[in-house]
Amino acid sequence: MSQFLQAAAYGIVQGGVLALVAVGFSLVWGVMNVINLSHGAFAVAGAYLAWQLNLHLGLDPFVAIPIVAVALFGAGYVIQRGVINLVINAPIFLTLLLTFGLGLVILNSLQLVFTADDRTIDTTYASESFAIGTVNIPYGRLAAFVLALVITFALAAVMTRTRLGHAIGATGMDRGAARLMGIRARHIYAVTFGIAAGLAGVAGTMIATVGSFNPTTTPGQLTLDAFVISVLGGLGNMYGALVGGLVLGIAESLGGLLLTGTWVNAIAMAVLIVTLIIRPSGLIGKAQYSGRVEV
Amino acid sequence: MNAEALSAILQGRHRTWSQVAADWARSRTRANSWPALALVALFAAMLGLQQVIEPGTQRLLSAVFMFVALAQAWNIIGGYTGYASFGQVVFFGLGAYTAAVLMNNFHVSFWLALPVAILGGALFACLIGLPLLRLRGHYFAIATLGAAEGVREVINNMTPITGGGLGITIPTFGEDAPTPYFGKPGFYLAFLILAVASVALSATLARSRFGYAMVAVHEDEDAAGAVGINTTVVKVIAFALSAAIVSCAGAFYAFQQIEFYPTDVFDASFTVLMVIMVVIGGSGSVAGPLVGAVGLELLSQFLRINLGAYNQLIFGAIIVVVVVFFPQGVVNFFRDAWRTRRLSVLDNIRRYRL
Amino acid sequence: MIEVRDLTKRFGGLWALRDVSFSVAQGEILGVIGPNGAGKSTLINVMTGYTRPTSGRVAIGGRDVTGLRPWVIAHDRVARTFQIVKPFRGLTVRENVAIGAMHGNERDRSVRDALATADQLLELVGIAEHADAAPSQLSVADARRLELAKALASRPRLLLVDEVMAGLRHQEIEAAVELIHRLRDVGITIVAVEHVMKAIVSISDRVLVLHHGSILAIGTPREVLSDRRVIEAYLGHRYAQRGEA
């Protein structure tokens, strides 16, 4: 039983970080109908930046977060404005390919500079933990989890309460109408992608703090997780991403406990496909952009 | 037009198959037989070429031939029918494992394992195609990607049968070998035949009633249904045809590799390569995937040999450049340029930008 | 030819069709009119398998086709056009029509035959000179003609046309009316949904008026046009009174 509780607790805190990876991915998908296969690459780029800041300047990863977020936002803005916007109206497999190619460029550049070795950001507190009954909770993961919650709610507030959020939402629903209202769609798309990249960078920093990362296997896994979570939670739905992240985190953690080998991954894929077929708007509530089920 | 003529059109033609066949035979002229002749000539030239090149070069070219077949296969479902599958590698892996398991565990001849692998791939395509082909656009792409990842994990965990993550080895030497190893010349021939057959299939499909049905489904499924096209059947058959070719390539690849792991034959980059080759060449045509596969595979072999560490970086950059500057594919780009007598890359960028 | 019984279709709280019953005889032309949102297109969509009815039955040629898939109904030699034209954009005008000729019930057995049929039909509807053009290059009127040729290519015995005259000029409407009469003369039963009142009156044997999903009136054009409720629905209350005075 205590083993079970421990796994559940671990799954919850892990799920928060996964949710943070998925929020931006889901936003980009929902608003511009682009599946960003380079999302994991942005997360890993953020991880490398935080790692470097820690290594050379001794900056704590939580302190480095604003710097990482701003840097990745800028990179994301420029890439969307300069590259992805050029093919935004193309058939879907072109944008899939484009973002795959961008991911290759980013990751192989990183690999050339930093090698393919596993990296982690060393902090004094990441491996420390406190106990509730028989359940141990590491400080680092808990902090990452809380931060993920705060950011998700903050983003949801931005989307529903601010002019920028409304502009993003409106562009996502009907770009033509939004442009007629004077919204600069190119800029809004770039900002959206920038936000997603920034969030990915923050998530990457958290991953680097509580675990390890490398430029070869981490990005693909993160992009795939973001996929599953976005589908579970419903496209462009911030809270959906949070719930999807927690579901995936707990499922993987408990699955690891109950199943041998990597069966849990096979089950995750089966859940993904079944969800797509029977409930394409996500498990909870209604997707904000359900009207975007288009070719 | 008088009433009888109108009535005649609307009655339909009631010709027997033999009349249709006789008509077809009479219609064969030099003008419309040249693609078939060109393909035969190309096949002969490649056979001739084999006699004068090193075994290493034969190995390199057999990879090129394999990708020609894979690109043509993806084009059937992704290009003609318009369902962009991002999990087509699942059939490659299944074909490879079907052949390897049959040969290794049950000592079955490759020549029996091959048709089983092809049929198995096509059947599996029908099975997952029925629910998945109801999804459109991104949803179909993700679902197929998920299917490929999921199947890989299943193979990975069926250790007693597949060897799991430790890989599988096909016995190729001595008494143990169910079929003697082909060697480099043998695989050169095998993949060449596969490539030529897939090009021929694609070209035949393109001019057939089924080919028009696939294009109709691609363009507008509602309108296709209105003229009596069973869109479900067309999509599933296109998916299964594509899967059959990919499974066949997978089986040959498995035998050629002798030893491999789930991560090798379910590698998502195979799917990406199929897609990019079709896109670079031009989707929905016969020449596009052919040109794309040959060009890209030769280029990536060149990069791998000469630029080592930088090859993936450059490969990524090429993808970005091609998607941005030649979104309709180079074959279509130059064909249009020939027709309009102007080469304008700028028009290309204007086409899909925001 | 057609038997429609108590056909009802609800979209959430909206009644697109409500207890609609009527029948059409072999060789008849039935015009369907009604204001925007009256349920005209929904009626065609339900009859051709694009929308499943909430309740009620549709029988065509004595066979119950309720809820069957579009292509199954098409194979019963039922053809339709779409209000928003749906050409296959990547193909030429000729190929667009040929696809209909090679997949219906009375299909041509080879692509060559289908292309020949397409040429004849393009001649019939009057756009033969655009055979090699892309559908996107056609004018509004020609795009509607293409839509009709595609439907005819599957050799229908029942043809449902959805606003095939919308946006046409006076002479173009006359040509379309003449064409529809000729199609009836070779034995095709026709249901024509139209917005253009004048056109419907001149082609129809009987007219069905839909209003808020229900049948307001059905009868000969003369009967329907003198029906007080129809005049009210179409022209408003005051016109109805003036007509009586």
Structure notes:
The complex is a heterotrimer of chains A (295), B (354) and C (245). Chain A has 295 residues and is mainly alpha-helical. Chain A has 11 helices and 2 strands, in the order H-H-H-H-E-E-H-H-H-H-H-H-H. Chain A has helices at residues 2-32, 39-57, 61-82, 92-114, 139-161, 163-173, 175-180, 185-210, 218-233, 238-258, 263-278, and strands at residues 129-132, 135-138. The longest helix of chain A is centred in the N-terminal third of the chain and has 31 residues, at 2-32. Chain A is globular, with a radius of gyration of 19 Å. Chain A starts with a helix and ends in a 17-residue tail after the last helix. Chain B has a two-stranded antiparallel ribbon. The mean pLDDT of chain B is 90. Chain B starts with a helix and ends with a helix. Chain B has 18 helices and 2 strands. Helix content of chain B is 78%, strand content 1%. With 245 residues, chain C is an alpha/beta fold. Chain C has a 6-stranded mixed sheet with strand order 6-7-8-3-9-10, with helices on both faces. A 4-stranded antiparallel sheet of chain C has the order 2-1-4-5, covered by helices on one side. Chain C is globular, with a radius of gyration of 18 Å. Classes of the chains: A mainly alpha (295), B mainly alpha (354), C alpha/beta (245). Chains in contact: A-B, B-C. At the A-B interface, helix 4, helix 8, helix 9 and helix 11 of A face helix 7, helix 14, helix 16 and helix 18 of B.
Distance between the termini of chain B: 49 Å
Q: In percent, how much strand structure appears in the residues of chain C?
A: 15-25%
* Residues in helix, % of chain B: over 70%
Radius of gyration of chain C: 18 Å
- Major beta sheet of chain B, specifics? 2 strands, antiparallel
Mean pLDDT of chain B: 90
Q: Quickly give the structural class of chain B.
A: mainly alpha
Could you give the order of the helices and strands of chain B? HHHHHHHHEHHHHEHHHHHH
Uncertain runs of chain C with pLDDT below 50, 5 residues or more? none
Spatial ordering of strands, largest sheet of chain C: 6-7-8-3-9-10
The radius of gyration over CA of chain B amounts to: 22 Å
The succession of helices and strands of chain C, N to C, reads EEEHEEHEHHHEHEHEEHHH
